[in-house]
Write a structure and sequence with these properties.
mainly alpha; two-stranded antiparallel ribbon; 9% strand; Exo_endo_phos domain-containing protein
Length: 198
């Protein structure tokens, strides 16, 4: 019915008591339910039944363990990624996936997907920037001895592109105000989020 399922619970199974002395009756009446999509987003969610206190029903507490919502490393968007055409494609692909998720969770899921995909792509594409610069310089040194002018021009262009990316990376990391630059990705995300009252 409605695609809802029991989240389950830990510890005390009872959520209600008749409050009488002597023949005390306890029962499990209250239940925490969610959709499968929600459980996929929050697999570490736990439910506990708190103390009743003066009431006959126990509060049902839904918790997300702190370590389940925190990642070990913080992922920051590298401004140098804007120089690569693939960046916008990755954001579009991640943003347009997963339309099966409930409307209220769509934005959170889309942002998380973009973050994860960009982090993987960034590590793969830009993670070895210093090594790539070193290799390019070494390759250029060998071309200076034996290469033709076209190859040398191509290598100079590639080295300049790599050095520009490195400069952008260090400018961002030195807390220079790179956000003042035209951040097309943020504008794209804001343009897709519905305005209030629209």
């Amino acid at each position: 019915m409605c695609g809802l399922r029991d989240v389950g619970f830990q510890e005390c199974p009872f959520t209600w008591t008749n409050g009488r002395e002597g023949e005390r009756v306890c029962s499990w009446l209250d239940i925490c339910v969610s959709t499968t999509e929600w459980m996929t987003l929050f697999p570490w969610a736990t439910v506990t039944h708190e103390e009743c206190g003066v009431y006959d029903h126990c509060p049902v507490l839904l918790s997300l363990p702190k370590n389940s919502t925190e990642k070990k490393g913080v992922t920051n968007f590298e401004a140098m990624c804007n120089k690569d055409k693939r960046c916008e494609e990755i954001i579009n692909e991640a943003w347009d996936e997963g339309d099966y998720i409930l409307e209220t969770l769509k934005l959170l899921a889309k942002i998380q997907r973009c973050r994860d995909r960009l982090a993987r792509w960034n590590t793969h594409t830009f993670g070895q920037l210093r090594r790539r610069i070193r290799e390019q310089k070494s390759h250029m040194n060998s071309l200076n001895e034996w290469g033709n002018s076209y190859e040398i021009k191509q290598d100079i262009k590639e080295l300049n592109d790599l050095l520009e990316m490195e400069e952008i990376m260090w400018r961002q990391r030195s807390r220079v105000s790179w956000l003042k630059d035209d951040d097309k990705n943020t504008k794209k995300i804001h343009s897709r989020v519905p305005k209030e009252g629209a």
